[in-house]
Amino acid sequence: NTVRSASSSDPTIPGKLLRLLFHDCFVEGCDASVLIRGNGTEQSDPASTSLGGFSVIDSAKRVLELFCPGTVSCADIVALAARDAVELTGGPAVQIPTGRKDGRVSAASNVRPNIVDTSFTIDEMIKLFSSKGLSLIDLVTLSGAHTIGAAHCSAFSDRFQADSKGKLTLIDSSLDKNYAGELMTRCPAGASPSITVNNDPDTSLSFDSQYYRNLLLHKGLFQSDSVLINDNRTREQVENFANDQDSFFASWAQSFLKLSAVEVKTGSAGEVRQSCSATNG
Question: Looking at residue 100, what DSSP letter applies?
């Protein structure tokens, strides 16, 4: 209910909650380390500045602490909120186990080596996903998260080059020229850092397989999206999902389950935080 009410007043919330889970699980495992505030924490790394949805997690935690104190971890809340975000926007309902414990470590230095950069090659992504126990199919499937959400101009500015007068030109030939023109209009050189662009230009508020159809039309927003159709190891899966949404949803259910179980802490390896933004005393 917390996710539903927050999303109805701010339709960007589902995309933010889904991204929050990726950042949480890829850095230190799914242990809510991304929620801890303070100097030197994951949140203080520049790659984390565009994360959002924290207030939704905090709201859910406050309600749960009233009714069942010390029982539901922040890590479980992050995973369940991301799951609900997908279902609320039209995606598949996925059953995931609970019982994750909250981590006690959150270090900015752990962020960069463990998250996908939008300029990554396919080999760099495969290596990173593999280190988390995720397969090539998981990589293609979980990239489908970009069917919702938005990105700041800086996330794809490497696909353009500015001349001395500040005029942008397209230098990435894998991008559709008309789409590139729209992006340059939305994100001119020196654009405000607050400007965002929808990951999916067509159905940005619906969790569907449009993302994969966009890729085939050379309208992947990030370089790390476009490489999925430029490599024979992943192109066939992209085409399959583009043509068969049920196949994507079935694969999503399995891959999301694996994502939400990456390096989960149990027993004395973690705790159930009283407040999501700080470890217990």
Answer: P
Name 181's Cβ contacts closer than 8 Å, sequence gap at least 6.
Answer: none
Per-residue pLDDT tens over the stretch 219-228: 999 999 999 9
CA 217 – CA 226 distance, rounded (Å) = 10
Strands (E), the chain: 150-152, 160-162, 168-170, 196-198
Q: What SS3 class is residue 255?
A: helix
Which residue from 49, 78, 56, 75 is spatially nearest to 12, judged by alpha carbons? 56
Rounded to whole angstroms, the Cα distance separating 98 from 101 reads 9
The contacts of residue 71 (CB under 8 Å, 6+ apart) are 64, 272
Hey, which residues are catalytic here? 23
Quick check: 74 pLDDT over 90?
A: yes
**pLDDT, tens digit, for every residue of 180-231?**
999 999 999 888 888 999 999 999 999 999 999 999 999 999 999 999 999 9
**Is the separation of the CB atoms in 52 and 34 below 8 Å?**
no
Return d(Cα 138, Cα 145) in angstroms, integer: 11
| For residue 164, pLDDT beyond 90 | no
